[in-house]
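Teaching assistant here, posting this on the class forum so everyone can see the example we discussed in section. The complex has two components, and the goal was to see what a joint structure prediction looks like when all of them are supplied at once.
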Amino acid sequence: EAQVTQNPRYLITVTGKKLTVTCSQNMNHEYMSWYRQDPGLGLRQIYYSMNVEVTDKGDVPEGYKVSRKEKRNFPLILESPSPNQTSLYFCASSGLAGRETQYFGPGTRLLVL
Amino acid sequence: AQKITQTQPGMFVQEKEAVTLDCTYDTSDPSYGLFWYKQPSSGEMIFLIYQGSYDQQNATEGRYSLNFQKARKSANLVISASQLGDSAMYFCAMREAISGSARQLTFGSGTQLTVLP
């Protein structure tokens, strides 16, 4: 089954404790992206990657890091989480053809205390 | 300026009736794509329908259709014969070819649709 998986699905942590949210896709997609969703703001892009070892900032990259060492994986790293990073996070992937939609993972609900 | 505007924070519709969810967009790129996603209370993002800026016909997918008015820069989602399972948050999104990420989606703030029995 074609899918994007994220782990963990739910996470409660404390300010300053480094965490990683994993994302993996099995569709051989070149493009992967991280979004955060906050009430009233829709989804905003954090980082994206066009291929292995190619990453770039989205609209709200501050406080986040990513890496793309393998095509299928695109982890999101919060080196020192803060309460304003409490949000719902989505990983997404797609091919590079013009009409392709992005496939979203199930989401990770993060609470930073 | 907002690139995607959804002016209806919440909508109600009677079961079996049709409903239109509004979306207007702003871009100077002649090549762009418009998407609608559904987000039920469980949280996942479900792709519904796509319209390309050069498409001659309005997109349709089952009970979903997109009323694309290019000159007015609107891409309204029409859901026919609403079902209780259609109750969800609906997001309009745009992808522009000239954006820094050629695949970046810019989302509106969403419309919460409630279908009444």
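For the discussion questions: Chain A touches chain B at residues 31, 33, 35, 40-45, 48, 50, 56, 58, 88, 90, 92, 94, 96, 98-99, 101-104, 106-107, 109 (CB under 8 Å). Chain A is about 0% helix and 50% strand. Think about how each of these relates to the inputs above.
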